[in-house]
Every structure is written in structure tokens, then in C-alpha cells.
């Protein structure tokens, strides 16, 4: 018979843990029969057999440790950004499988790429790259942090639209989580402002980009305001002192 | 499901003498059609889950019938199978019991170390010359009257157990009592007269020795609470204070209707159940 049906009642007296779920801990120094009696697994004499014998981790007995053998080099750029790359052939494959859709009302953003599994981690933002552009067919609407020139050319040749938007860590988190209550911050650093006001990069606060997008649903009013405010540097000049 | 659509107060399916529910209250066509249109059909689940049938349990005679209470003859309580028909898992019950008993431990055992034993730090005898072993102060653990090395210190023995394991333990414990026919439901737990002696006679008459009575009220009925206090092997508890340990410790379990509702509200799972109206045709 396959199972034995218990007829005894379940009481406090006949409870037991699942077989193999609990293991007795090792107790050293409790007699020869345990296998860990006598020296309790420490061997005979020597520094390591003494109580409190903590040798500093990484110490190699006086020999120059491996952490000190080689010279330090360089510095770590705190302002560096790691972009999560995604190529056009991957996006095309995802669209063909039906895992990714794009329309002017719902463009492809970091959120869609992450949820569909096209990207596994957004890092500091998404960069659209142009590898496999020969397989790319459909017009798509993408808002990414960055896009390479070949990717921009490939997308626009098929009738799609690319916009590069500035995402600080909070704005990226809100985009990925789908939160719309907060306003995404504008770029403050000079490098970011000059990059995103440039039409060559399809920056979102470049007047030429906004003109080419026209009145697509995903274009926000705020971008136009920021374009005028943050693009003012293009028309400004230093006062020339008249001698 | 249908009984839920009416309202949670309809714990009882009123039936004629046959202890088999036919939806007598719902026999009118207009009521049935209204209910049919208002029933919300949830989307099909992504994982195949078995569709369970509810359990039926006849009411036990209450201690004292209250005014609005339905008669126990010919009335049946409908119980949720996800709470009262879980498969038996002794290992889960073991985990929950051990967790509860750990939490009860006082953990007040204490010993003095060589630093805490009263005594001076003077060296007991010179290092060399006495022919005996070398010794420092008189509180060393090697010496009689010295401190204890690695002795117990007051500590917290409580352990953590995932909330869902504790909930599963409650479901398994209630199901175990149900399976062993040691679960009863009374319409209400009252004892207005408050005499322990008469309550003892009533308990003997009902055959409810070694029982745990669980009431769903926030505070149990005062008269019953006071009368039951001095009766050995019989206890009364509020449903939110009950543990797996208490359920297993007592042989029998008698619940209030409100206690049944409390357990079902807090412990039930969202699996599909066969609605009551369909059962009559099975």
C-alpha cells in the first residue's frame, strides 16, 4: 500500500520536524567519540591553536601581501554614467514576438524595455545602439537617455521618432515604476544642458527636435518651456568692454 | 459563494430536518435571477487550482440559548475548506508550537564570570618556588569559588517564524480538529447566570470536558469567563489570542459563529469554491 493512514490523534506529544530539516550543531571538545575531542579541530600548538588567535585577514606572514604588491592607478569618476545598451535588432525581435509595442500615445521608454525583458537593469539610463540596423523594419517611438547616431538614422529612416530625455536617478526610478505624480527634474550640469539642447543628439529640449516631433502625444509642454529657458545660452554673448 | 453574496451574517444554511443544504431561502426566481446578474465571475486563474466544496458541520447545543439564536437541530454551519480542510502537516504544527514555546521562555538564567565574582586581583601565590601550578587571582574558573567560564547569561530565546507559516499552522490545526471530529460550533458562547457549579453540570451533560472554547468577541462574555475560570481542563479564549499550541493542547475545540467568521476572514485563501446553489445538484 502506498501510504499509511494514521489513526492516532495529532497532539503535542506526536509532533516532529520534517525529515532532514534540522541538523544538530557541531560541538567541539566534548570527548573522543565525537571526533572533535582533545584539541577540538585545532591541531597541535602554534599561533592558530591559541585562544584569541586572530591573524589579520590579508596578512601573509610578513611577505608583502598581494594587495600591496601592485601600485595604485588612476581615479574613479564620480560623475560617470553607465548606460544600459540595447541594439535595434533586439528591439525588432521583441516587437516581432509581441513583447514590445510602440505607438505615439505609448512610446517605448525604460519601463517598457525593463518589463518586457529586453533590458535586465536600467543602470543610469538606456542607450539605443544601432547594431543590426539591417534587420530593423518597423517605425517605433522611443524615449531613451541616449541614442547613437546610426540608431537615430535607422529609426528615422523607417518613419519612427527618437527623443533623448534627461533622467536623473529619481526621474529614472519614477519612469520605471510608472509614477506620474512627480515632475522629472531638468538637467543642471553644463555638459548635460549642452548635450540635450543639441538636435544632433535628438535632445528633448532642442528646439529643432521639438519642431520635428510636431504635436505627437508624448511631447510635454514642459519640454518647450525648458527649451527656451535652457537654450538661452545659445544666443547669449559676453559683454565686450568698450575701450 | 452565493451565501457570501447575501451577506456574511448568513453563516447558517437554514434547512429542514435533513442535514443537507438546499437553498430554501433562495428558491424564489426573482431573487435568484438578481443574484445571478450581480455575481462577478473572476478571470480564469493562470495556475490550475482545484475547486473545493465547502464543509458542513452541525451545530452543537449552546450553553444557554440566546434570544436571536437559531435552533441547533436541523441547522448546519458552512465552513470554508481552505481554512478547515487543509492537508495535515505535522512539521508545520511542530514549527509553530516550538516557536510559541520559545517565546514563552523567561531566559533569566545568569552566572558570574571571573570578572563579576567578588574578590581582589592579588596573585594568590608566587609564580615560582611553591612547586604547584601557577595562578593569578582567586576568581579564575579553574578554582573552587571562582567564576563560571561560558556560563548562561540572560538572553532572548524567541525565534522568528514567517507570518505565512504561522497562518498555515492555524489552518492545519483547525483542519486537524475538524478531521478528527473534535470541532464544534455553537451559535453563541454565553452564560448569563454566572454559576460555575451549573456550568460544570452543563459541560458534563454536553460531553465537553477538556475543551477550548474560542469566542469571536473582542472580550469574552463576562459571566462565562468568570464561571469557566475555575473549571480544570476547560478554557475560554478570544479568537485573536489563540495559538496553534492552545488548539493542540486541548482535546476538543468549540467555536463561536463569530470566531468561525474571524478565522475565515483572516486565514482563507482566494481559491475558487463551488457555490452553495450548485452543490444541491451534485
From TrEMBL, chain A:
Residues 15-63 are annotated as: Disordered. Residues 30-44 have a biased composition (Gly residues). One of its GO terms (cellular component) is mitochondrial large ribosomal subunit. Pfam families: Ribosomal_L27A. One of its GO terms (biological process) is translation. The keyword Glycosyltransferase does not apply. Belongs to the universal ribosomal protein uL15 family. HAMAP family: Ribosomal_uL15. This is Ribosomal protein L18e/L15P.
Automatic annotation (TrEMBL), chain B:
It holds the Pfam family Ribosomal_L4. One of its GO terms (molecular function) is structural constituent of ribosome. The keyword Lipid metabolism does not apply. GO terms for cellular component: ribonucleoprotein complex; ribosome. One of its GO terms (biological process) is translation. Keywords: Ribonucleoprotein, Ribosomal protein. The keyword Nucleotidyltransferase does not apply. It comes from the Eukaryota. InterPro entries: Ribosomal_uL4, Ribosomal_uL4-like, Ribosomal_uL4_dom_sf. NCBIfam families: rplD_bact. HAMAP family: Ribosomal_uL4_B. Belongs to the universal ribosomal protein uL4 family. PANTHER family: 50S RIBOSOMAL PROTEIN L4, LARGE RIBOSOMAL SUBUNIT PROTEIN UL4M. This is Large ribosomal subunit protein uL4m. It comes from Crucibulum laeve. The lineage of its organism: Eukaryota, Fungi, Dikarya, Basidiomycota, Agaricomycotina.
